[in-house]
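Input sequence (169 aa), recorded before submission:
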Amino acid sequence: MMIEEYKKLVLPIKNKLYRFSLRIVGNGPEAEDVVQEVFIKLWDKRHELTQYKNVEAWCMTLTKNLSIDKIRSKHRRTEGFKEGFDMPSKAANPYQVAAMSDTMSRIQQMIAELPEKQKMVMQLRDIEEMSYKEIAEILHITIDQVKINLFRARKAIRARLLNSESYGV
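Predicted structure, C-alpha cell format:
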C-alpha cells in the first residue's frame, strides 16, 4: 500500500479515533498519543489492511485497547465531554446558556459515573453515531449486549437527570 492510499484510508477517521480515545483516557495530550500509536501500528501493518473488511472498526478496536492500556498504566479515570461539545445557539440568552452549560456538566458527571462498558457504548452510539454492529465489533460483544448496555446507560442518565430537575438541583 502506497502512502496516498494509506492517507485516504485512515486520515478521514483520525478525529473519530481522537474523540473515542479522549472519552476513555480523559486527557487531550494522552488521547493524541494513543492516536499516534494507532497510526504507527497501522503504518506497520499497511500491507495487511486490505485483508480487513472494516478497517474503521479495526482502528476503533485498536484505539480502545491502547486507551485502556494507557489508563491502566496511569491508574486514571475518564473525564467528561470535550469542552465546547454543547455549543449553545447564538439566539440563546445568558440564562439559557448558563442553564444549558449546567445541564451538560451534570450529564457529563453522570456519564463519568456509569460502568465502563455502558460509557463506551454510549460514546460510540450517541456521540460517534456508530451502528450497533460496528460497536459490537469494536467492543467484542454481541449486538444484544450493545443494546442492553445502551438502554441501561440512557435509562440511568434519564432517571438521574429527571430526579435532579425535580429537586431543583
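Checked by second reader. DSSP finds eight helices and no strands in the chain.
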